[in-house]
Specification:
Layout: E1 21-22, E2 35-39, E3 44-45, E4 56-61, E5 67-68, E6 81-83, E7 90-91, E8 104-106, E9 113-114, E10 127-129, E11 135-136, E12 149-151, E13 157-158
Parallel strand pairs: 1-3, 2-4, 5-7, 6-8, 7-9, 9-11, 10-12, 11-13
């Protein structure tokens, strides 16, 4: 827990194949981690693992990653593109909240649940396409001002997940 939390001078990190789990707060508030974060060996990302790592712009995630912990990438404000793993079934609450530059997100066919406020204030997301029978939690996409189009395809349950999405025009 809290292994490298507040290591402000840390600019990059390499994970060997032998490291497959990131504990709570592992790299929380490492504000100078910059660029691409390669998590291809990581199969478990626990809560708050990279919160406030505001200079990370791209993630490489392991295809076998099944769950992303709550607040895992909260306030990663420079995160731009996100390709979710093919085996991902759960995105927990606030996982990508406040990732204001996140603009490209592809939801896979196995995703079953998106937790409350998971993408809150991701103000650059323009389109949502759900390819699975996903349950979308409370206000998962609140304050996502740029959403213009949503394809629910096989969505299982929709809660009150949108609020303040001013550009929304196509359902």
């Amino acid at each position: 827990l809290h292994t490298f939390q507040y290591c402000y001078n840390l600019t990059s990190v390499y994970f060997p194949e032998s490291i497959n789990e990131l504990d709570e707060y592992s790299f929380s508030s490492c504000k100078n981690l910059v660029g691409t974060l390669n998590l291809s060996s990581i199969t478990t990302i626990n809560q708050y693992a990279f919160e406030y790592c505001s200079k990370i712009s791209y993630l490489i995630l392991n295809d076998t990653l099944g769950e992303i912990g709550s607040h895992a990438f909260w306030y990663c404000s420079n995160l731009q593109n996100l390709t979710l793993p093919t085996e991902l079934t759960q995105i927990n609450e606030y996982a990508f909240s406040k990732c204001t530059k996140l603009n490209n997100t592809s939801f896979n066919k196995k995703l079953g649940n998106i937790g409350k406020y998971a993408f809150d204030s991701c103000t650059s997301i323009a389109q949502l396409v759900f390819q699975s029978e996903v349950t979308i939690g409370l206000r998962s996409f609140t304050n996502c001002y740029s959403i213009k189009e949503i394809d629910f395809n096989k969505t299982k349950e929709i809660g009150n997940f949108l609020k303040k999405c001013d550009e929304f025009s196509n359902l």
